[in-house]
Here is the input.
Amino acid sequence: MLRRSLTLGSFLAATLVVVACQDVATSSAPLAPTAPARALTTDLPASRPALTLPASTPAVDRLFSEFGTRAINPGDYVCSDESPIIDFVNNELSLTLSTTAERNRFFALYNRYADLLPTYEALFFQTTDTPQTFGYQGEFTQVMRKTERDVKNFWDIPSAQIQVVAMHGTMLRDTARTYATYTQVFGFSPASSRAAARVLRDSLAASTTMHGGNYSFWTFNSVSFRDREDGIPDKIVMGDGILEGYAAIGYADVAPQAIFAHEFAHQIQYENEYFDDLGNVTAPEQTRYTELMADAMSAYFLTHARGEALNRKRVEEFLNVFYQIGDCAFTNPGHHGTPNQRMKAAQFGFKVADDFQKQGHILTSAEFHDLFLANYPTLIAPDVTTP
Here is the structure.
């Protein structure tokens, strides 16, 4: 089982049985299980919990209601579950679910963990020893390589060892790769794994809407990972689905850089041991703190003249959409902060960049952390305006 050093963003991240923090908020999942996630067993289950389209109550609030402790009082904060990226993924899903045949194929895949297999296969088996491409047709490969170089040169932590690999939904057609993940990672029996691998391959081959695995639902994900005890290299994994999804709604010029910068910020937190800054707090409080710090660090890098040097207005336009995925799941241990809190954290990063780049200075990660920690109470203050 992966430890807490996995930070993962997925619309179905709540189905994972690892201790994880989701880098894309999960409260407005296009489809979300209606029952708590079950632990992976030694054999494939007959089916997974049924899926339903979003309800007014965030799905992850229902999933994680047993925690019983909210990170914040929801009545004090403005929070919305609407976002064009959710519309994009829902529209793609709706097309698949609109016919019986395609719906059956989708659930044949979902019931066999097709939404998790690309993530785990990339984490456990993919390395930079194999040439990596990003995007359905490799269209993001160049920008990802440049962004990796820029981010690693900008921040002061040791980073040569951090591998950047891609997550492709097309791996679901490869029975050898899915079999290896089922048996070696999930612990399923060889017979069940072989049968499931064939179902995945055949269902995708027959599908008229899931494009052989180039389908955002299976890889709408980004992961920052560190677990040196098990000998797995430090990794950042970028899913095709998340890159293609934001490109489809008009953010191909900024989304890859922004998402990667956020993931790299988690590597800084691992390296400098910032995960325990708040001491003994609830899981939602813990995750909100580290996620808002990652938001601030990424905004600082993106707009700093010696960082990515992107236009602040354009970055802010993207972040407004990125944060509006709607993390209103105040009891979720993966709670990232409300959209407004996340934007306030980003604006803090913008301001720090403005204040220091005039001298051509790049703050160390420790210096930035100390500034963020001092300003954190302001960033999470209630934002509801009372008449």
